[in-house]
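lol forgot to send this yesterday, sorry. struct tokens for the thing we talked abt
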């Protein structure tokens, strides 16, 4: 919210005014800042853990480039866009940012990555994020447990050299398209299939809050296997009485752009234009 793109100098004044008005209305603060517009980037974020003793580690990246109206839909790790060298460079930038802020707890440093390998800081999320299970599955680190340990004043036992990414994980955000009462409810199962939700049969999905009703996460030795496992899990998911977006996720996973990993933050925009 409160964001506008400007492609020419004459567009700036109106964009500034409308963005400021929207920010004031939504957040009670009409302050606006200007940053460089990167067209069709990758959205890459790095998970960090920082204790109160000054130790900071990163746990690799999540590719969050499948978005709709600036809201993430699918996240995966590791990203096909990163070389080992670029991963190390971006990870160290995330660690330095947390250290410079004197931060402690779990957190996420978010970047946009252009097609030439240049990356730019977006923001830091000072919390556990929706997509944290993706990192948990590829690293084997329980992020919530680590966050609680840090809050208790305990030092990290984890060092950077201990962090390795094993296999591939994908998360699909299951969103309701409207309110409703959950009828028959069946969650996918099997090895390395995880469904995080608060749903149960007869639960009423209200119209007042975020539309997220569950997170479907899978892990497999390779990205190709993870995609197939996710497709199978989506087929198993049943939430009667509530219209949701599982079929849309199936369509996305089957597209050549997603299968190749050659997709960017404009993925859904281009898809909807093509009809």
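and heres what i got for the seq, position by position
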């Amino acid at each position: 919210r409160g964001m506008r793109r400007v492609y020419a100098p004459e567009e700036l004044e109106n964009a500034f005014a409308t963005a400021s008005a929207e920010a004031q209305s939504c957040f009670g603060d009409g302050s606006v800042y200007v940053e460089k517009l990167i067209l069709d980037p990758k959205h890459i974020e790095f998970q960090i853990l920082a204790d109160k003793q000054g130790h900071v580690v990163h746990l690799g990246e999540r590719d969050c480039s499948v978005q709709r109206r600036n809201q993430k839909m699918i996240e995966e790790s590791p990203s096909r866009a990163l070389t080992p060298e670029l991963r190390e460079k971006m990870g160290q930038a995330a660690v330095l940012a947390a250290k410079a802020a004197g931060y402690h707890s779990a957190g996420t440093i978010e970047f946009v990555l252009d097609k030439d390998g240049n990356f730019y800081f977006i923001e830091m999320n000072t919390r556990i994020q929706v997509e944290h299970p993706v990192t948990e599955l590829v690293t084997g680190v329980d992020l919530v447990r680590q966050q609680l340990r840090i809050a208790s004043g305990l030092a990290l036992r984890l060092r950077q050299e201990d962090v390795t990414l094993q296999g591939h994980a994908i998360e699909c955000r299951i969103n309701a398209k409207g309110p409703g009462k959950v009828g028959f409810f069946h969650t996918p199962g099997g090895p390395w299939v995880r469904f995080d939700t608060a749903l149960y049969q007869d639960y009423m999905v209200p119209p007042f809050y975020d539309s997220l009703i569950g997170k479907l996460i899978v892990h497999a030795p390779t990205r190709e296997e993870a995609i197939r496992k996710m497709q199978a899990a989506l087929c198993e998911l049943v939430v009667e009485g509530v219209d949701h977006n599982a079929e849309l996720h199936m369509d996305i996973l089957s597209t050549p752009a997603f299968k190749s990993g050659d997709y960017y933050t404009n993925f859904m925009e281009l898809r909807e234009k093509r009809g």
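Helices lie at 12-27, 84-101, 132-139, 143-151, 223-236, 246-253, 256-260, 267-274. anyway ping me if u want another try
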